[in-house]
Amino acid sequence: MRGEPDWSRRIASKCALAAAMVFLLAPFIVVLGSSFGTASEYRVDFPPHALTLANYAAISAGYIHAASVSLLVGSIVALLASIVGLCAALGLVRGRLVGREALQSFFRLPIQIPFVVTGAVFLQFYYQFADWTGLNLLSGPLGLILAHVFVAVPYSVGAISAVLVRFDPALEEAAESLGAGRWTTFWEVTFPVIRPGVMAGLFYAFIVSFGDVPVALFLATGPWTTLPVRIFQDMQFDFRPSMLAVSALISIVSLAVILGVQKLAGLELVEPRRR
Amino acid sequence: MASVAICNVGKSYGTLTAVRDASLTVNEGEFVVLLGPSGCGKTTTLRIVAGFVRPTQGRVLIGGEDVTDLAPRSRNIGMVFQNYALFPNMNVAENIAFGLRQKKVPRAAIEARVTELLELIQMPGRGSHPVMTLSGGQQQRVALARALAASPRVLLMDEPLGALDARLRETMQLELTAMQRRLGITTILVTHDQHEAMVLADRIVVIADGRIQQTGTSDELYRQPRNRFVAEFIGANNILPGRVGDIDGETIKVELRGGNALWAPIRRAPQRGETVDLAIRPQHVGLAAPGPGTGDVLTGQVAERRFLGNRVNYSVRLASDEILIAECPGDGNPLEPGTRVTVTLSVEHIHLFDSAGRALRDD
Amino acid sequence: MTTEAKLFERGVHPAARRLAARASARGGHFGIRWDWFLVPAVLISLGLLALPQGMFILLSFHADLGLGQVSLAFTIDNYVRVLTDPFYGHAFWLTLYLSVAAAGIGLLVGFPAAYALARIGGWIASSLISLILTTSLVTVVVKLMGLNLILEPTGMINRALLALHLVRNPVQMLNDQTGVLIGLVQYTLPMTIVLLFGVVQTIPVSLEEAAATLGASNATIYRKIILPNSRAGLIATGLIAFNMSMGAFTSAVLLGGGRVLTMPVLIQQTIIQNTDYAKGAALSTVLVAFVFLINLSIGAVFAARGRKAAPDAG
Q: How far is CA C184 from the centre of its chain?
């Protein structure tokens, strides 16, 4: 039983909490609600008078294509960032190098640079790179993937380090005393225990890549435009009711995925991302 | 089964020396306990035998074979860790079978062996139980079964019973002894609990400050401590500081504080005037009514009295203001606090230790 | 030397002794030198950081020739322009003001909210935190679309205000600093709450209860116990919210209608629309350098204050 200090203090903070929750959830509720209502280019219906799925039916092939681009890029980024993150975490947590603190800060650097700047940086770099080697990294998804990996690695490093630090070395010693080699020990003992961290890292990397606008705005053009950028551009220049439906879908799917990953990875997600 | 020998093993971490010049032989089938206070180097020594720590000097031999350069997994040992280190992603059977799978034992044989071990640890049929929901005692048994599964030639245990409550610990101690005797496996166990050491060990190795203080059976350690540390560590002991007075052949006169003196036998002659410590166990301290008497007598006053069932402990304040603990049988007339008493020390049970802490009754 | 040692001393070959000495340096965990794992990670990360970033900074020291071309001559002209032209100065102060405001509002609302969550605890708190985190993990454009719908002249807020006769004309919240500010708070509030939640959790309830038994009022408990103990966390969190806001792009564009020119927006315009790469690079460098400096100085100030306070607390 929590102690019962004066209720007024609690009331004030609970009001703040309620206000914050309303503030944060309102946009989603509006989007969800109006996606089921009638809407035109000029007016959106909220709360909706009549429920209809017309907006959903009107989702263009363009959006679906953009969604698949985002999914593809996101998955590749998650995979690559996790591999790099795993190596970095293993070296940082288990290594004996003297400058480890500095290296930890180094790995946190990418998310401390504004995404706009990162986008610009990679854009001009790819131009130069194309001049040097003739390879145009902007013509396909590769340029975007590399830039996203750059930004996503810190999340992976953080998530994996968090579990690795708590890993009991006696488990590996026990495996070794029973005759297991390094590879066996890693796959059968170490990896299953750190898997939640690895999954959390994969997940964060995917989310960061999928949801990014500034970097993709610079680097993903033409057929490789990502979904958020499509929506971004349409919001500025070409509002369509089907956008509501797309946004509603993204919200629902995101929520489902997040809940699902939390089931698998436990409360790792509640741990704040380290900056 | 194999013997274990460590020869002049030392381990230093930079300027810190964890183990100094340790030499020990454990015979086949013997149960040896490494005993000592926290941080004395006993765990380090065990891990050197296991191969998790590289000695900076010395060699390790198992079964006569020099294994110092061998990795732990090639030493054919079984190890039980302090917190059991059970693999959380596997169930009981999978944990136990782990070592057998590394040796590529065929599945049928593995299953048979797992069943056999579950019987041994008195947990039959619990193979599919997840390990993390087991009680401490059960986890400990599974850890033991896992270590024994592949029939190692040596069993190493690092304070395995430390996390169990007192009663469970006692039960496990007896089971452990019985099991070890039945299997006849060479065993080295590390503990800081001297009672546990006395129950389990064929021989005890007392370690302090990274150095082996004395090796022997519990009886030997108790009756013939070789230095002051062992005398104080094993069993209760009174220590009275004194100075060497006259030396007469094989006895010396020990001058204690407060003007008392008594004669005690020695083997090694110290210098006259040297400081010595006199050690006598509480049950060898006799209390009697004051009066004229012969022999080595001290006088004092009973300060406190504690009833311990079949014994009574008295704290006696001597004329020199030192406190001596005396243990007397419980039946008989208990003495009231404040009573003046004559204190008799049983001469043949006196141990003398020189300024370096070494016993004067040994070579 | 004991007899056992004498016996085996003969068996120790000098070569084996040398091998042992060399292998003594072997680390734990299988003797794997885990440091080696850092090599690929550092190489890749360094490659992705140093090379593009370095070239970018180098670029800023050249002049734009229009249409994306850049001169070959080295010049600090861009920096001079950026640091002296009032146009950029205005953008800079605007960004600064909005970021500080967003961070401040975030702390003002987020701290009590985090406190409430921490004291509620249990599965309710975890669920709410998950929900809050979810709002930050969903693509920002979705949130901004919702905000747009809420804040626009025909949106919910204005309709309510008009219906209640609180205003005569719809309040302009979009295409305006207000809208951007709201967007920035949306962006940073979830992270703020989650971080401060962790901070408040480190203050045991027993502290508050002890103060209550000693007769302290609520305000006192808040001022003298909760806030001081959270100070370091508040500063750190505020700084993070500030950093996030200084770099925020999407909110500024979509809620500011391209008219609220914060630095991030300006950078994107300069590079994409004006193709003044060098100037854009200079703008970026100035922005990043400034944010970095602010972090450093605040860190230093509070580290020094912390050191001064420590002797008293000792």
A: 12
Mean pLDDT of chain B: 89
pLDDT-derived band at B217, boundaries 50, 70, 90? very high
Burial C223-247 (b: 16+ CB within 10 A, else e): eebbeebbeebbbbbbbbbbbbbbb
On whether any CB of chain C is under 8 Å from the CB of A155, the answer is no
- Closest CB to B73: pick one of A168, A181, A192: A181
Q: What is the CATH number of domain A64-239?
A: 1.10.3720.10
pLDDT of residue C312: 44
**Average pLDDT over every residue of C178-203:** 91
Residue C268 lies in a domain: no
Among residues 196-255 of chain C, which lie with CB inside 8 Å of chain A?
Answer: 197-198, 205-206, 208-209, 212, 217-218, 221-222, 240, 243, 246-250, 253-254
Residue C1, pLDDT score: 38
Of all residues in chain B, the one with the smallest CA distance to A176 is: B73
The pLDDT value given to residue B211? 92
Q: Choose the closest CB to A117 out of C34, C48, C267.
A: C267
CATH number at residue C203: 1.10.3720.10
Question: Which residue of A163, A166, A171, A178 is the best one to mutate when testing the B interface, meaning the one whose CB has the most B CBs within 10 A?
Answer: A178
The identity of residue B149, as a single letter, is: A
Nearest 5°: the CA angle A90, A94, A97 is 105
pLDDT of residue C97: 94
In a domain, C247, yes or no: yes
Residues in chain B within 8 Å Cβ distance of A176 = 52, 71-73
Q: Is residue C200 a part of any domain in this protein?
A: yes
3-state secondary structure chain B: CCCEEEEEEEEEECCEEEEEEEEEEECCCCEEEEECCCCCCHHHHHHHHHCCCCCCEEEEEECCEECCCCCHHHCCEEEECCCCCCCCCCEHHHHHHHHHHHCCCCHHHHHHHHHHHHHHCCCCCCCCCEHHHCCHHHHHHHHHHHHHCCCCCEEEEECCCCCCCHHHHHHHHHHHHHHHHHHCCEEEEEECCHHHHHHHCCEEEEEECCEEEEEECHHHHHHCCCEHHHHHHCCCCEEEEEEEEEEECCEEEEEEHHHCEEEEECCCCCCCCCEEEEEECHHHEEEECCCCCCCCEEEEEEEEEEECCCEEEEEEEECCCCEEEEEEECCCCCCCCCCEEEEEECHHHCEEECCCCEECCCC
Each residue of C260-305: pLDDT tens digit?
889 999 999 888 888 888 888 889 999 999 998 988 888 888 777 7
| Contact (CB, 8 A) for B354 and B334 | no
Q: Which domain holds residue C232?
A: 95-260
What is the amino acid identity at position C85? D
CB-based contact, A272 to chain B, within 8 Å: no
Domain ranges of chain A: 64-239
Task: Please name each of the domains of chain B with its CATH number.
Answer: 4-232 (3.40.50.300), 238-353 (2.40.50.140)
Whether the predicted interface score ipTM is above 0.90: no
Q: Domain tally for chain C? A: 1
Residue C182, in any domain of the structure: yes
**Cα–Cα nearest to C153, from C251, C257, C262:** C257
Winning range, highest mean pLDDT, from A70-79, A91-100, A120-129, C268-277: A70-79
The proportion of chain C whose per-residue pLDDT surpasses 90, expressed as a percent, equals 19
* Chain B CA closest to residue C8: B7
Model confidence at C70: pLDDT above 90: no
**For residue A29, what pLDDT is reported?**
87
More confident residue, B144 or C165: B144
Chains near C (3 or more Cβ pairs under 8 Å): A, B
User: Which pTM value belongs to this model?
Assistant: 0.79
Residue B294 has pLDDT above 60, yes or no: no
